[in-house]
TrEMBL record, chains A, B:
Gene3D superfamilies: 1.10.1660.10, Antibiotic binding domain of TipA-like multidrug resistance regulators. Residues 2-71 form the HTH merR-type domain. The keyword Lyase does not apply. GO terms for molecular function: DNA binding; DNA-binding transcription factor activity. PROSITE patterns: HTH_MERR_1, HTH_MERR_2. Keywords: Activator, DNA-binding, Transcription, Transcription regulation. It comes from Micromonospora marina. This is DNA-binding transcriptional regulator, MerR family. InterPro entries: DNA-bd_dom_put_sf, MerR-type_HTH_dom, MerR_fam, TipA-like_antibiotic-bd, TipAS_dom. The lineage of its organism: Bacteria, Bacillati, Actinomycetota, Actinomycetes, Micromonosporales.
Amino acid sequence: MAYTVGQVARAARVTVRTLHHYDEIGLLRPSGRTSAGYRRYDEADLDRLQLIRYYRELGFPLEEIAEILDDPDADPVAHLRRQHELLSGRIGKLQEMVTAIEHAMEARKLGIQLTPEERFEVFGNFDPDEHAEEAEQRWGGTEAYRQSQERAGRYSKEDLLRNKAENEDWGRRFVALMDSGAPADGPEAMALAEEHRQLITKWWYDCSYEIHTGLADMYVADPRFTAHYETLRPGMAAYLNEAIHANAISRS
Amino acid sequence: MAYTVGQVARAARVTVRTLHHYDEIGLLRPSGRTSAGYRRYDEADLDRLQLIRYYRELGFPLEEIAEILDDPDADPVAHLRRQHELLSGRIGKLQEMVTAIEHAMEARKLGIQLTPEERFEVFGNFDPDEHAEEAEQRWGGTEAYRQSQERAGRYSKEDLLRNKAENEDWGRRFVALMDSGAPADGPEAMALAEEHRQLITKWWYDCSYEIHTGLADMYVADPRFTAHYETLRPGMAAYLNEAIHANAISRS
DNA sequence: ACTCCCGCCTCCCGCTGCGTGAGGGTCAAG
DNA sequence: CTTGACCCTCACGCAGCGGGAGGCGGGAGT
């Protein structure tokens, strides 16, 4: 059972050119040629082509497909599993975008016109346009940054207002603690530091103790962040820094 | 507030080269240049870039994005809705592939080794390799073909056996009817023709009366299909053809 | 005022995965 | 022995950038 390019092309729903291409790059060489130079594909070639098409559908680059197919001791089950994961990931990403779009539609319907500033107004003093670039430099490319960007896009106006309220509540309690004269490395301060960490984790990204202390250092090192906390209460940046460090140390 | 390429690039998580490219093709021209020729982007440019990135994420080609963004009276809500649909479609497709992969994994786990022949063995005499190409020529590219291909991939071995059983049951009853001497355009024959159509619809694709009569004609025109029905009972191809036509006429 | 170095500029070539001819041989049917 | 449908091999083109060469600009430090 030998097939010509045209037959194979029609059967596999690809163009002849594609088969030529696969031949050129060595991805799918026909098992033989006629005396006139015509490509002859056999059943095994068809099987291989089916696999190729399948992987292609999944978005694999041709080179990678070649590696997969030509790896003799590659575990097919592992491949399937891997593909499954990749697909699930892609589905997840697409679904996130869908919800983002739904949000946007909701906003339009209500005439809310969710401008970028509006989306970030909950950040208070932190003007996103002013600091976005810096944020990118500091955290760009990290998982944490990706997460927070992603979530920011999904939150509704109410969500963000709720977040703001929670932050303010925490801030009031923190100021009260400072006013009470409690030490920055005392149990209450550490508890509030921990709460601060969890607020970040809840709303934005998984904030490890390492990341948290990094943030703490920034609060005293970067004047803009310092200013934000200092307006809540003078001395707060340094106090919070100490509390976060104390908390991180005690937990590890 | 003017930004340089580098700043914009970092903020938007794209490369400088990409911004150059967008400038070149006119997709995003910076609002101005400095005396030295440096590109200067303002807030509006950033907004536009955000939209561009968004549409790009969704897989739109740049040209189309330009059309969308430059269409002054384009309804943004309509766009969102359209994107939503596209995304939903994509998710659906990916999910189908996931289930297909899951099936394949199940089969591997049980050591079943679902070879192509096995997958199609329920087709009986119809050797897929022998007819796949023809099928493509006849139906390739049609919605019906796509549907049946898609479903075939999702069916489990049990599903396919069930389908086979249902077909055989229908076949037996059809043969019995012929044996009884009932006319091919009588009510019983038409009822069984209708059932035939519904079996196809249930298992493979939406089989309209038009498609159904097309199939009927093929049963008498194509010797391979003729042979399939003739082995069930001599004269069955022609009888079934008549019954299907009678049924289609009476229903329209 | 001078020097650095980083960032900006404009070419321009390269990559993937083919599409789409051009120009020419081949094969089966009539 | 011709037709028409295939087949062959170049070979260029396209999107959407990546990446580098070669050269200017600018602001921070000395």
